[in-house]
Amino acid sequence: MTASTIFSAVAILISLGSVYYTRRQTQLIEKEQTRKQHEDESAAEWAAKFDEAVRVVQKISTQRISDSVGRASCFIFKSEMLRQRIETYLIKQDLGREHFPARKASSDDLRMPIMQQTIQEVLDCVKKFRETDPENARKLGL
After folding, report:
1. How many CB atoms lie within 10 A of CB 12?
2. How far apart are CA 142 and CA 133, in angstroms?
3. Spatial contact of 126 and 142, defined as CB atoms under 8 Å apart
4. What whole-number distance in Å separates Cα of residue 76 and Cα of residue 60?
5. Integer Cα distance of 20 and 57 in angstroms
């Protein structure tokens, strides 16, 4: 074999290696783009759920149900831990308990499992209340 044949063979091997690694990098970039797109879609979904949960909590928080003791929120959200998480993650606690502004939620906040759990539990409790007590749900504007 001549030197030019050896150099040609080495060049071909290097080219094949380059093609392999370029293809692998392209696959990794595509995988990362897919993951990012999925995260963005998930963040948008949780942002919509967050807005809905805050809206119903604000609507419920200042109202009373005639046949229950206390605020409607205590009747609908029976768990004290859930009510604490609502005040921690969804609304700002007002000392006078008459105004309940929404907390700001970043996309990082919306990815937190505890935040997602709180949002989902609020929506589930409201859905259950609508099904079990449609008359009071209608009165509360749910």
Report:
1. 10
2. 11
3. yes
4. 9
5. 55
DSSP of 4-71, one letter per residue? HHHHHHHHHHHHHHHHHHHHHHHHHHHHHHHHHHHHHHHHHHHHHHHHHHHHHHHHHHT-B-TTSSSB
**Contact criterion met (CB below 8 Å) for 115 and 91:** no
CB atoms near residue 82 (< 10 Å): 17
Q: Which of 105, 121, 127, 125 is nearest to 47 (CA)?
A: 105
What are the residues facing 91 on neighbouring strands? 102
Q: Which two tokens stand for residue 79?
A: 């768990």
**Token pair listed for 76:** 């609908």
Mean pLDDT (10-residue bins), the chain, 142 residues:
82 88 90 87 90 89 63 79 88 69 84 92 92 83 78
Q: The whole model's pTM is what?
A: 0.69
**Residue (of 46, 45, 71) closest to 59 by Cα position:** 71
SS percent in the chain: helix, strand, coil, step 5:
75, 5, 25
